[in-house]
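Morning!

As promised:
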Amino acid sequence: MRQRMDRRSFLRIAGTSIGIGVLYEFAPFLERRSEADEVNSYFKRVNGEAPASFTFAQFSDTHVGFQGPPDPLGTRAFESAVALLNKSPQQPDFVLVTGDLTHNADDRGVHAQRMQRFKKIAGGLKTRALRTVPGENDAALDGGVLYREHFGETHYSFDHKGVHFIALDNVSQGSPKVGAEQLAWLKADLARFPRTVPIIVFTHRPLFDLKPEWEWFTRDGHAVMNALAPYENVTVLYGHIHRHDVHQGGNVRHYAARSLIFAFSDPATAESKQPLAFNKEEPFAELGIRLVGESSANDETAELEVRDVVLAKAEFSGLSGMQQMIKGNNSMSGSSSDDAD
Amino acid sequence: MTPTRKFAALGILGMAAGLLREGTATSAKAVNAVPAAQVVRITASKYHFTPDRIVLVRGRPAILQLTSADRVHGFMVREFGIDTDIEPGRTTSITITPGKTGSYATICDHYCGLGHDGMKMTIEVEEAAAKSSPRATLASASAAAKYGTSAPEAFIGR
């Protein structure tokens, strides 16, 4: 799909193939603009770090601990994503993980083991910096207690090379909401920035009504978007829906990442939300990548080309066939078969 | 929505469904203006609603009385503007007047465990004339005989 973007926007988004997951490249425009100068000088003044090009990756919905018919391979996609990212000639500055790092477990000890296993696999990344937000599987049943023990706060913000990143938690209260307290924090966090600051929000659930009857929404997502409305350069990255999606709402573009466990059905055509059936011929189909790149330009506008890439079996060269993969995965400890949610 | 009348329960349907009906109007004007409300009890528990299907009548007020048998659940029907939590130990009452016939998906949107994704029910809204359909009549007659109430006018359990 093609989408137009404002050439004069301060922030550009471009995607680079890493096999599985999404690698983003952000490049501030060099075009002279008073607002851009304002942002530049702000970051230089506050943290001595003026805007500069950089890349980061997004992983989502790894569901460590899940093993069932939609994905008998368990963490293989996650592990493959780590390996593929490590092979990338351009290592990202950090990796964002947009929730459901683990699959929920009724037993607290088992759930803790799954969080440890996530950290062990993610610890194999050359890029050591990991920025995460919880999904409902990680944090909804205990208010995020176990998640905080392993990964830290569920909402926070940080600046990186001229971009302000905001991690929002819309899961740990059980209901799909951010809540009044976090909204007040968000407004206070935003208040110190000029309206042209590049902002990237990352969260688990969509902040707009994507498919409410499939629970693909956030109750007070509109309040979050109202708080962000004055800002010109806002991008939202999220997970939860286990499939690619791009949505433009006002000035804000929302990107959903594919999962690293299994894909959900297409809400435009499916009657109900179901995991797509596992396909031995294309074991990681729909766990592929999203490519976003600028394809053409004129004086005022550029076009972004967003392409879906379905991974081929060849992506897993070095592994000796599907049966061995499945057999090997079944012998791994700590896996279990649960409902796919 | 603030209820304008006080209602008294007249009957309960058991495991399959619940429907309480009728009330005491506080003014004659209200009686003339609005048909008597249905009162429907819905119990949430991991991982289902009981009943999992109710039938309301278009244009007739309905009071949904929501309770939980175990833990916090959610109750979300986007078309009716309903999105609330259901807490154990208390009844959450919601009054609606369905304006359009149809079938409305209703989900638990408060994560409650591994089976959460399958916790859903359906609200059907029918024209008043539909209450005389054979299935509805059968259910009403059965409920009336069992509980000794006036027959519920809009109930089909599953």
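Chain B has one domain: 6-147.

Hope this helps with the figure draft.
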